[in-house]
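Predict structure. Chain length: 147.
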Amino acid sequence: MGRSYDLRWIDAMVQHHTGALRMGAYVFEIGVPGVGALAKEIWRDQAQEIKAMGQWRKAWYPEAPVYPVALAPGGDPDAMGGLIRMTDAQIAAMRMLERTPNRDNRVTWFLEGMLQHHGGALLMAQDALAKSRNPDIRRLAAAIIVA
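Prediction complete.
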């Protein structure tokens, strides 16, 4: 865990939420009942959470680099020096956009992707509840689980 846990969790969750926003953009005006509305609801909620996490990051970790961070192999989780820039592969894994849809499969792609994506969010939120002592992080994690 370490003192950098919340920073690392914020950076990972922002990337994760960014993936959901990008997935939703494929189906905003799809014309399938409920799908576009669901995508817009996800967009609204997760964009607000991204904004809040960005504000927390600036307030709580003013010394942190501007780029998303991860724990370096063998790095000290209690020190900023133990962190490295999140790799493109790590960002891609958080965003879960390995493939993109075509016109014919985008509804199925979105719905299946959201199931997988939100399964990942549940794991991340459960991890935060187990490891973070920050009440704002814990409150957001609990809200993600409920949602």
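Summary: The chain has one domain: 5-146.
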